[in-house]
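Discussion board: Methods & Data

I've been asked by a reviewer to show the raw model output for two of the constructs in my manuscript, not just the figures. I'm not sure how much to include, so I'm pasting the format here to get opinions. Each protein appears as its amino acid sequence followed by a line of discrete structure tokens. Is this the kind of thing reviewers expect to see in a supplement, or should I convert it first? Here is construct A:
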Amino acid sequence: MREPDPRIVLGLHRSRYERRILTSALDLDITAIDTSFNYRGFTAHTTLADVAGDLLPRFTLSTKVGFFPAADQDEHSLDPARLRAALEQTNRDLGLAPDVVFLHNPERSLPTPAAAARDALGGSCATLAAATQAGLCGVWGISSWDPRPLPGLVDATLPRPAVLMVRAGLLAGIDVLEASEALAARWDLAPDQVWGMSPFGGDTTDPVWGRLDPRVFIADADDALFALQAAFRTAFSLPEVGRIAVGTDNPSHLRELTDALRYEPDDSRLRTYRQLLRQRTGRQTD
């Protein structure tokens, strides 16, 4: 029997929340899933519990809080009381305490000036840290789609997250990559404490994947390697992350992703790629 491979997290952002994709993940020894308080019109947790409540103890479950229902459209908030209430509801809806809770895109609600932003970020981080101590989750982290405003706000007064989730892959952009790395460094997080997300830029059918051949970034590429597999494997190095959350409702696609893990990225070509990205923005190279 194979040991579970922690490098793939089954993301449920656009999932249909069908039981078969969860059982297929377990068959492939993928034992981590990621969802959010606001997914599926704020019904993700109850749907997950209804569809696969008996399976949930077999997974490491991560979720996120930060978005809330509103009359016109979803709204984002770093208000500690609202975050705590969302965490308590998460536990009720899932029927268990999630293993990881991320503060969802804190950059969305940061006030100005920087001192106020630091206070707001610190208060929300303290709320998740307290919730962890209270048993509402195993550990807490930060999930940021655009981490660029965050590194400058982190100092020794802020609670330290156990996990950071950021965009990863060839389409993330050099500013996002470097901000992610700076944020991880500020909190002294090792690569296995950093998760990637959106390795295909949110859309595997984007025409860019027909023009770009990511296999050039794989050191041991062979004829069995598909372009999207190469893009996925490359994403573990842009930035360096220990695992990646990736969504699919197709068991065959999920198997292809697990097969991609046997390949190794070409570090030299990836360094060159980073240099080209910096040059394109008019910045100095390493």
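Construct B, same format:
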Amino acid sequence: MAKKTIMLCCAAGMSTSLLVTKMQKAAQEQNKDVAIFAAPASEADSKMSEKNIDCILLGPQVRYMEDDFKKKIEGKNVGLAVIDMQAYGMMDGAKVLAQAYQLMENR
């Protein structure tokens, strides 16, 4: 089992799938023991109950849901942020992975 788990959420879980692949590649290159997966925002609650999630990153297109997610993770030790729009647009897996690790370290 991975030491850390990162969930990416977007409207349908499709656009973040490519980013997950790039983040996994970056994690492997950096020897980071992390599980990364994408899910539609509508499935976030069930995923959070199934897995011990350390960090949730929201796709820029669901930025409006950030307050809802803050309520979902209240009292839990989970990092939450909207993915940097430039990194998302460039599908920069290493930069988004660094964003996630910064969140997890600052909890």
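Answer (T.O., handling editor elsewhere):
This is acceptable in a supplement if you add a one-line summary per construct. For B, something like: The chain has five helices and four strands.
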